[in-house]
Specification:
heterodimer, A: alpha/beta, Rossmann fold, 10 helices, B: mainly alpha, three-stranded antiparallel β-sheet, 3 strands, disordered C terminus
């Protein structure tokens, strides 16, 4: 069940010291960061973070606890404003944007500690993701004109279609907060997908899942990438998952990138091994 | 039954409940059925009840749906009351507009707009805050509005409105006289108009909740960070809930004010805001139908308790505490669920009732 399946995408170097899959070289990279960094009162949580992600790449971000992985996600999604450097999403500089504006540029994410709209139904959670794709205002929502009914119906169908990715259509009427843990994680992915992103960030998607569920998740992540033709970047501690589906992997330690490369390159990189396991005693 | 049908059903029950109550009251008022008559004191309470229901439902939009504790709701009501009284007085004195329903309607619309403007002005600074801080600042703004209105003098001279601040001696007929409040108000509020306003409020609030904007407001309540991450403009939707609520409170204020010949600003103190909050909390936060019932009962109750004279407020407080204990006790909730189960034709154990 947990056999290793190394991806065999050919990775090629691009300017800014990164690699992207060969098929994405001619396309505009979905994400580019240059010298990205943030300080919290003198503590450099992330420093000089340079990364390019191809248009349909599955990228991994790994590193020991406290390395700054989630901080990087918060910087990319503009939850935090960087103190240094730039984030370029799909060719557009995101300087000065807030999280909502970044989302409209095509970045979506899930959270390490699940953040669903717990009191709302599963379907409504997905509908919130679809929010910016329908266009009727407050007044027509109150007056209930034909445009309201038409768009509500289209939204309902779209929501069910998205839920069917994870076979969750039957749960549409359930309260999101009452779902089992694994289903909540899947619902967060569906909600993120509903915003029609170009880059999907998954923060520990396999946390708390058993090996069988993880295997299923790996297949689903690849399926989503193939179906929607988007880039996916994930933070994960499950090395089976990371080494299995990530094409390019970036290793972070103490807020700095210590290695970039394909799965096999990362596995044999002495700096990475040292960061995870410590230095071998000399002598 | 799907969720959509359930929601539709629930809304229909709410509309139906209000309509039936209105018809019963109208029958009692007309006295066409022998022995079925309304007492004088209750008759006088009808319009205020309508106003308090609208206040409770509109506050529920902020507290229950948008999840922000606002303690200044009476402030918006007072803005509505005084702007409504001034507009009504001005139309009567300057234009001799005798048509009362039209005058009341215009007064309510203007009052709603004025309260809405106040809502926007207050919302801009207030909605940057969260939780307790927001509650404290709305409380402060409620008091500020009341104290400012205490100093405002508006007179009508011919067709002109004359505004003054701390200037008791203005020419013409006084409409708004500082600490005395609105004076010489033509009592034009009617129970029918009150019913219309309640229905209008229900349509606005219930339809808003079940629309794209309403879902966004609820999503922000559940998780602000997640809502931002899917591209919701948090400030816009918080403002939408806050201002809609203020507009409705302003209209309720106009209805309330035009029911009395004089209304002073001291009527809209902090305890009035708390009273409305009590309606909302007792009726169930986020539960529109509960707000309506609680506002009705708690407005009638003090009148019914007149028999206890001096002990009236004491009994009122005890009743409030008993109701709150009852609705929160798992034992009694279980019993209630059993009764509900029997009514629905199936046996329900107390344990399952805990979830109710």
């Amino acid at each position: 069940m947990t056999q290793k399946r190394q991806s065999n995408t050919k990775m090629v170097p691009v300017p800014s010291y990164s690699i992207v899959p060969e098929r994405d070289v001619d396309k505009r990279p979905v994400l580019e960061t240059r010298h990205l960094g943030i300080e919290f009162g003198g503590l450099k949580a992330v420093e000089d973070f340079n990364l390019t992600i191809g248009a349909t790449e599955i990228a991994g971000l790994i590193g020991p606890n406290g390395a700054g992985k989630t901080t990087v996600f918060n910087l990319l999604t503009k939850v935090y404003q960087p103190t240094n450097g730039v984030v370029i999403l799909d060719g557009k500089d995101t300087a000065g944007m807030n999280a909502a504006q970044a989302s409209k540029l095509g970045i979506a994410r899930t959270f390490q500690n699940i953040r669903l709209f717990g009191n709302m139904t599963v379907e409504d959670n997905v509908r919130i993701g679809l929010h910016n794709q329908i266009r009727y205002g407050m007044v027509s929502g109150i007056l209930r004109g034909p445009s309201y009914w038409k768009q509500e119906k289209a939204q309902h169908e779209k929501a069910l279609e998205l839920l069917s990715i994870f076979d969750m259509q039957d749960m549409a009427d359930m309260q999101a907060g009452s779902l089992p843990y694994g289903a909540q994680r899947r619902l967060e992915i569906v909600r993120a997908l509903a915003t029609n992103p170009k880059l999907l960030l998954l923060d520990e998607p396999a946390a708390g899942m058993n090996p069988h569920e993880t295997e299923e998740l790996m297949e689903n992540i690849t399926k989503i990438r193939d179906q929607f033709q988007i880039a996916i970047m994930l933070i994960e501690h499950d090395m089976n998952l990371v080494m299995g589906i990530c094409e390019g992997i970036c290793v972070l330690n103490y807020g700095r990138i210590i290695a970039k490369g394909t799965a096999s390159e990362i596995q044999s990189n002495p700096t990475v091994i040292e960061a995870y396991l410590g230095k071998r005693k000399e002598g | 039954m799907t969720r959509k049908q359930k929601m539709l059903m629930s809304n229909l029950i709410t509309y139906g409940m209000v309509t039936i109550a209105f018809i019963v009251c109208q029958l009692a008022l007309s006295g066409s059925i022998d022995g079925f008559k309304m007492s004088r004191s209750l008759k006088g309470q009808l319009v205020p009840i309508c106003a308090w229901i609208v206040m409770a439902v509109s506050l529920n939009l902020v507290v229950g749906v948008s999840g922000e504790l606002s303690l200044g709701h009476a402030g918006f009501m007072s803005v509505g009351t005084f702007s409504g009284a001034v507009v009504s007085g001005w139309l009567l004195n300057a234009f001799q507009m005798e048509n009362e329903p039209v005058r009341l309607l215009i007064a309510m619309i203007v009052a709603g707009v004025c309260a809405g403007v106040a809502g926007v002005l207050i919302g801009i600074p207030v909605l940057r805050l969260r939780g307790d801080y927001l509650a404290i600042v709305t409380l402060a703004f409620g008091e500020i509005i009341r104290n400012v209105l205490n100093c405002v003098y508006i007179n009508v001279d011919g067709k002109k409105l004359i505004f003054g601040f701390n200037t008791p001696t203005l020419p013409g007929k006084a409409l708004l006289a500082g600490p005395q409040g609105a004076v010489g108000v033509d009592k034009i509020s009617t129970f029918v108009m009150g019913f219309v306003l309640i229905m209008f409020t229900l349509v606005v609030v219930l339809n808003l909740i079940n629309s794209r904007s309403g879902r966004a407001i609820m999503a922000i309540r559940d998780s602000r960070i997640a809502a931002e991450s899917v591209g919701l403009n948090v400030t816009k939707y918080k403002m939408m809930a806050f201002v809609t609520s203020a507009v409705l409170a302003g209209m309720a204020g106009a209805l309330y004010g035009l029911n009395y010949s004089t209304v002073a600003a001291s009527k809209f103190k902090f305890d009035t805001s708390i009273l409305v909050l009590v309606f909302v909390v007792l009726g169930g936060i986020g539960n529109i139908r509960g707000s309506i019932i609680a506002a009705t009962l708690l407005t009638i109750l003090p009148e019914m308790l007149r028999a206890f004279s001096n002990y009236r407020m004491l009994v009122y407080a005890v009743v409030l505490i008993v109701v709150m204990l009852t609705t929160n006790s798992p034992f009694l909730a279980g019993k209630l669920a059993t009764v509900k189960g029997i009514l629905k034709g199936r046996k329900n154990t107390g344990k399952e009732g805990d979830a109710v």
